[in-house]
């Protein structure tokens, strides 16, 4: 198999070329033109399609999971339609975009209750099963490790100002660029209780922030320019908290989905 590693192929031309069964990792297709290409059976994970235009395409049997904003299909912005349908199916989801302190307190309390239920369900599985990823996704324990990372990043660092709030078991997202001072051991196999011990600390941190949250704080901005991640200037504090709510909500759904898949495999 031919390998292209750490090469700049900017401006290259591929015509009547088969790349079937190829793997592309951290590859830039920015401003590329793809004409009469075949993506049948392709798996695209962790990709960015900002400003992408798809014309004359056939989308049949396609499954898309991700953030949708200003997604226009045949002249119709489908993002609000999808959002409304998801809220109709699960009305609690609408609570994950609060605008006032009480709304954030209600949303976080709801998330903690739902996660308690999911963790209780996970405890009915053998520990080894909680290290199994379904369809290439994170395992249950890896999902918890990622949520610990998200809480540390957006509340510990951005809101509370702790420059390096990390625990060795924290897990960034797979496509992250990598940082010298942030732990990232995807293959670690800690026990569920080890990860939950960190998680309880992170949940308490977020709870303390939202319980004391005021309208003035919610309207404020935060800046963190020290080495590490996130690095943001004038970033809305409200957005930091909303990111954590969204991460907690979506990843619990993924965890429940995968626990169901593991049950069906028994």
Please give the structural blueprint:
Elements: E1 72-73, E2 76-77, H1 79-89, H2 101-122, H3 140-157, H4 192-211, H5 215-218, E3 221-224, E4 232-236, H6 237-265
Antiparallel strand pairs: 1-2, 3-4
What shape does the CA trace take?
globular
- CATH level-4 homologous superfamily of the domain at 99-265: dinb family like domain
Separation, N- and C-terminal Cα atoms = 36 Å
Largest sheet entry: 2 strands, antiparallel
* Annotation, overall tally of beta strands: 4
Q: What is the topology, as strand order, of the major beta sheet?
A: 1-2
> How much helix, percentage-wise, in residues?
25-40%
Order of helices and strands: EEHHHHHEEH
- Look at the helices and sheets and give the structural class: mainly alpha
Mean pLDDT: 92
| Percent of residues in beta strands | under 5%
What is the highest CATH level, the class of the domain at 99-265? Mainly Alpha
Rg for CA atoms? 21 Å
Give me the CATH architecture of the domain at 99-265, please: Up-down Bundle
Counting DSSP H or I runs of 4 or more residues, the number of helices is 6
Q: Stretches where pLDDT falls below 50 for ≥5 residues?
A: none
Summary?
This is DinB family protein. Pfam families: DinB_2, Pentapeptide. By secondary structure, the protein is mainly alpha-helical.
Polypeptide structure, described:
- This protein has 266 residues and is mostly helical.
- Helices cover 39% and strands 5% of the residues.
- The chain has a domain at 99-265: dinb family like domain (Four Helix Bundle (Hemerythrin (Met), subunit A)), CATH 1.20.120.
- The chain contains 6 helices and 4 strands; from the N terminus they run ββαααααββα.
- The strands form 2 sheets. The protein has a two-stranded antiparallel ribbon with strand order 1-2. It has a two-stranded antiparallel sheet with strand order 3-4.
- Helix 2 runs antiparallel to helix 4 (192-211).
């Amino acid at each position: 198999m031919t390998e292209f590693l750490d090469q700049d192929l900017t401006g290259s031309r591929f015509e009547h070329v088969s790349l079937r069964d190829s793997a592309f990792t951290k590859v830039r297709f920015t401003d590329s033109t793809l004409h009469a290409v075949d993506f049948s059976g392709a798996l695209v994970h962790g990709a960015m399609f900002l400003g992408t235009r798809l014309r004359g395409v056939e989308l049949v049997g396609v499954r898309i999971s991700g953030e949708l904003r200003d997604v226009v299909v045949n002249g119709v912005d489908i993002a609000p339609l999808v959002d409304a349908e998801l809220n109709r199916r699960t009305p609690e989801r609408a609570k994950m975009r609060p605008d006032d302190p009480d709304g954030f307190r209600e949303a976080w309390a709801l998330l903690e209750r739902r996660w308690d239920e999911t963790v209780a369900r996970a405890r009915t599985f053998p520990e080894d099963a909680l290290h199994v990823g379904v369809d290439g996704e994170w395992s249950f324990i890896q999902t918890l490790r990622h949520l610990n990372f998200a809480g540390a990043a957006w509340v510990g660092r951005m809101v509370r100002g702790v420059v390096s709030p990390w625990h060795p078991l924290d897990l960034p997202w797979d496509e992250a660029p990598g940082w010298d001072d942030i732990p990232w051991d995807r293959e670690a196999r800690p026990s569920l209780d080890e990860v939950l011990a960190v998680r309880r600390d992170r949940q308490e941190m977020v709870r303390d922030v939202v319980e004391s949250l005021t309208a003035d704080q919610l309207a404020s901005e935060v800046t963190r320019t020290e080495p590490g991640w996130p690095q943001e200037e004038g970033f809305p504090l409200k957005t930091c908290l909303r990111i954590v709510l969204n991460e907690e909500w979506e990843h619990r759904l993924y965890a429940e989905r995968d626990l169901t898949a593991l049950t069906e495999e028994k």
